Amino acid sequence: MNEGNASAHEVLAALLEPKRGERWLDVGTGGGGLALRLAREGADVVGVDIAEDGLEHARAAAREEGVSATFRHGDAQELQFADGELDGVASAFGVIFAPDRERAASELARVCRPGGKLGLTLMPMDSRTGEMLTVIARRGGAAHHPASWETDVEQLLGAAFALEVERRESPGPVQQAPPWEDFVRAFAPLRDLVARLDEDGVASLQRELEAVAERYAGRPASYVVVLGRRR
Known about the structure:
This protein has 9 helices and 7 strands. It is an alpha/beta fold. It has a single domain (3-126, 141-174, 220-230), classed as Vaccinia Virus protein VP39 (Rossmann fold, 3-Layer(aba) Sandwich).
């Protein structure tokens, strides 16, 4: 469940340099890939996600590795931590899916102590996933496009964190778009939309998304790394 974003997890964890004994939060942890990498460095990590399906996988992986990572259900818009409780907050393509992006950004700042670290990976609008989400949004998606975090990150977090923003390309073999059935099953925004459409609507949506995937075939995936220090 973590393979697709493994290189971004590795890059972000290396740049954040978590220390033994620090308390870290991974928001929108999914299968726990980023949280586990932070925990391997000795940090005490909590991963939260509003979807339960990946959390059991993450818990099993943490038990198998014997690292200090716990996983629990949680909403990025209402984090169950005290003000300034954490040494670092991170999210790899997770917090961007919160319906209220301003509230989620405010929560990241609230729970991070002064001088603490922030680390995010964001999808650009002009990427395969970004364009696919544009298609989904056009058919009734969220009020804010998840990729709008990349264009508005200074507005969302710049008052609370001193930010550094850099675009990167994923190394290694170019990943192909998954088969349609796998994509629907694994990608919640698409799964939710498909459930609302009739048969013709689903067929039209599939054709449009496959056309996006074809335009990006053979191109390395790109993403944006955001590092911050709490003011």
